[in-house]
Amino acid sequence: MRSHLLNDTTAEQYRRSVTEGVERVAAKLAATDRPFTGVSVDALAPRVDEIDLDQPLHDTAAVLDELEEVYLRDAIYFHHPRYLAHLNCPVVIPAVLGEAVLSAVNSSLDTWDQSAGGTLIERKLIDWTNERIGLGSAADGVFTSGGTQSNLQALLLAREEAKGGSLAELRVFASEVSHFSVQKSAKLLGLGQDAVVSIPVDHDKRMQTVALARELERCREDGLVPMAVVATAGTTDFGSIDPLPEIAELCEQFGTWMHVDAAYGCGLLASLKHRDRLTGIERADSVTVDYHKSFFQPVSSSAVLVRDAATLRHATYHAEYLNPRRMAQERIPNQVDKSLQTTRRFDALKLWMTLRTMGADGIGQLFDEVCELAREGWRLLAADPRFDVVVEPSLSTLVFRYIPADVTDPAEIDRANLYARKALFASGDAIVAGTKVAGRHYLKFTLLNPETQASDIAAVLDLIAGHAEQYLGESLDRAS
Ligand SMILES: Cc1ncc(COP(=O)(O)O)c(C=O)c1O
């Protein structure tokens, strides 16, 4: 069994084994002609169920053959140009190389004595990100598992920095289309049920700052404490960017923590064309960035950044067995002092390899391409009478719905769109997402693949129309 341990004596087996796996995946990626096979849960589950985990196969090739059956064949492939659903990007090769290195060396970024150079690399990437944001010389931050955790940590710091008020009196303001992790965080942080105040959005799905000002005022009048405003730079559905400068003004006026959730919009930090859309982000107290959304990084890769490094102390605990206080006094850099996690992956290495290979401009160029693709998609949708499209894209999403020429019942149109999404998924030809707008069911393209062409968008729209029409035809048959 020792032959399976990765060490000085098994380096050759490691090379062979990993190469075998890489060959399989490379062959798979090259031959994938659809983002999904359309397999059903009922068809796939028995294949996984029948495997006896107490009967190992011992042989890498056999294990990979089995993996083909239970996973690789039917996985959802984000690199395929017709995967258009959620905020998942195709990944860049330097980052995948980083992933292979980091799991083989297996550094843990909690303490210097488990990572050494890894800690320095992460710190340099945090500084690099902060410089791009413009948070100033006292800024700091830490890598996290994703935007949800970054938002949670930012709001933890905001809660601790809030001036006065019991937990029940703290209020967090976020737009009605902000990410649900804001609500989850409020709950985890012990705030009251009404803690998150939903602020309406304008026609472009951006937070209405007049409404925000009114709610902040009301909060003060009611003797409550405005703990934080969460501005979203790139909402999940619409990619809309809240008016950051106006929100910064209001936060200053009311002495409120400003958090910018740029989980999606952070790609603009590298953009060659649209960096100005993030103007105002430099005034935030904290920022969430998800490199695994718009920096083309494998899951997970995210960070929470703060204007004032000292605020990270709210996540600091010392333990004799790990990071005794004296280490901080000796200035030994233990990242666990800033993190909610203890054992932590060296995810930063992926971004490091990416920047050292392609440079930030390379990432920015790819992100600019998907934003341009979304504009082309919008032009297609706006000109197509079969579809209603909600807003012009700010980043790279399109929210739309099929509207049959001869059907006026909105509920029936809902059902046709829901059916089209399901049928498309089951066919595996393309994958699109869905959401609700003003109580009605819509479909969504999240465009994060520069390989997707306008012709793919046009073809998928035709497929959607075809499925919706089929549903409506069958529905007519049922009625008659
Ligand atoms: C705006 C926004 N914030 C936060 C998140 C949560 O990020 P994660 O899925 O990495 O936890 C998402 C995810 O889609 C998001 O769109």
Largest sheet: 7 strands, mixed
Radius of gyration computed on alpha carbons: 24 Å
The overall strand count is 12
CATH superfamily of the largest domain: Type I PLP-dependent aspartate aminotransferase-like (Major domain)
Describe the structure.
- There is one protein chain.
- α7 (181-188) links the parallel β3 (170-175) and β4 (196-199).
- Strands 2-8-7-6-5-3-4 form a 7-stranded mixed β-sheet, sandwiched between helices. The protein has a 5-stranded mixed β-sheet with strand order 1-11-12-10-9.
- The protein contains 15 helices and 12 strands.
- The protein is an alpha/beta fold.
- It starts with 10 loop residues before the first helix and ends with a helix.
- The chain folds into 2 domains: 98-357, 3-Layer(aba) Sandwich (Aspartate Aminotransferase, domain 2), CATH 3.40.640; 361-479, Aspartate Aminotransferase, domain 1, CATH 3.90.1150.170.
- The model has no long low-confidence stretch (mean pLDDT 97).
- The longest helix is centred in the C-terminal third of the chain and has 26 residues, at 454-479.
- The chain binds pyridoxal-5'-phosphate (PLP).
- Pyridoxal-5'-phosphate (PLP) is lined by residues 87, 146-148, 151, 179, 181, 232, 234-236, 261, 263-264, 290, 302.
- The site of pyridoxal-5'-phosphate has 16 residues, from α6.
